[in-house]
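Session log. Operator J.P. requested a structure for one protein chain; no other inputs attached. Running the standard single-chain path with token output.
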Amino acid sequence: MKKVLSFEDFKNSVNESIQFGSYHFSDRTSFGEHSDDLPEKGESKFLVMSHTEVEFDGRRYRLDGQHTSFGQSSKRYIIGIFDDEAAATEAYKNAVKKPVGAFVSFSMGTLTAKSKFAFMYNEKDGHLAKIKVR
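Structure written below.
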């Protein structure tokens, strides 16, 4: 019989930066300069993005310029939309090494077009930045 994980062990084994591991986009403008690279209806591509959500003392917060907020959605920056998972993985690994500004958390996953303006994102790998106070 396989070892059953405690809830805490399970929670620590999940590698996601977006709460619940998925997100729904309801417009094309969220993708900015990458909107021409979006998948067609029924197709999927790989998306790499950074966002401003962080963890501090077990709670999630959103960094926003000079102050922090919670209970609001985090801001996102689309790094790229890729046809190839290997290219997406490389972009993800490079981005994690060099965060820019408040965009310190990262996510990579599949982006599926439900229609011309509706997209479902499912995270495959994520890095949620943790704030440490010394």
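Operator note: Confidence is low (pLDDT under 50) at residues 10-14, 67-72.
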